[in-house]
Model the fold of this input.
Amino acid sequence: MNKKILTISIVAATLMVGCNNRNGKADDPLAESGRTQRTENLLENLKAQGDSGVYMFGHHDDTVYGIGWEADYANDSTIGTKSDVHSVCGDFPAVLSFDLGHIELGDDKNLDGVPFDRIRKEAIHQFDRGGMTTLSWHVNNPLSGGTSWVADSLKDIERNTVAAILEGGEKHDVFIGWLDRVADFLNSLETPYGVKVPVVFRPWHEHTGSWFWWGQDFCTQEQYKALWQMTAERLKDKGVTNALFAYSPGTEPDGNADKYLERYPGDDIIDILGLDAYCNAPDADTTMIAGYAKKLDTNLSMVTKIAKEHQKAVALTETGYEGIAAPDWWTATLAPALAKHPICYVLVWRNARERPSHHFAPYPGQKSVSDFITFYNLKETLFLHDINALYLKRQ
Ligand code: BMA
Done:
């Protein structure tokens, strides 16, 4: 090849690389980390958001069902159109959350009866309108065939489950297949114009308690860390480039950073430091509500301190007051508890259409509606209309 042709080839190749980056998508380049640039931008924006004293509001299964209704899954024109939160304040949560439980089984619907195809479409739609999606995973037990929740009668099996799915274990291959189904789903989160939808993936949550088979009493520290390592590695190997990872212990560390970090899989795996903390206060018991506020304060102080040292974003990855019996809970309890801490989002759990007392967000007629509207209007709270440029590079 003469010099001139060689030069032309190099220029042409350079131009092609410039247009078609390693990902093969003109406008969806991969960053140095191997994740899409938008995914990295999201992470940077989440960190900055926390530091600026505002936080996004999130609600689990918000747009797929609520009290007295369920979306028409056969009709795509209903995607992202109905929500208890929207019915109450005229805006959607900035953060939607869905669960991947039962995707591992190859089922069409998740453990709460929501089709995975609809979850995919909701996440893409939420991205298209500027909001964010987070995904949890209440994965079944591959050894006992049971659910995520430990069954007393199966305790011996539960104790061996994590060991059984790690490398060398009898269920390792099965479990890799389960992870591959998660990877396929994450890879399928792509807009029609070829952009991967960044999401926050939050598996292996509340492991500081012992109600899930990956919980404190059912595996060693090293096994729990290895579980995360295996998860992150397999998703990466399967080409997942659009997932941030959130670590979300429960309140058991109770302000003790060593406890919080005891099973931490490492800065190279985790992007967001989370906390799951619920308000249990039957009959609006004021002492119990105050206890929740204190518990939040103690644990969020700990998490935000750790996050500063590790340069991570912080989120209240799950919270809520089942039934919201105190009508002023949003502005008298939740907002003041969050005001002191640089979190990027707060997420309340679902409004179960099949079990109406199991609701964590208001719906028309619910007793905290008027207070929720005040909460919505606080300058600190961000809903969908308040969000812009979540996926753009920070200047
Ligand atoms: C729990 C409850 C369950 C549900 C699970 C996964 O907290 O809401 O009813 O199946 O989360 O969404």
Observations:
- The chain is about 35% helix and 15% strand.
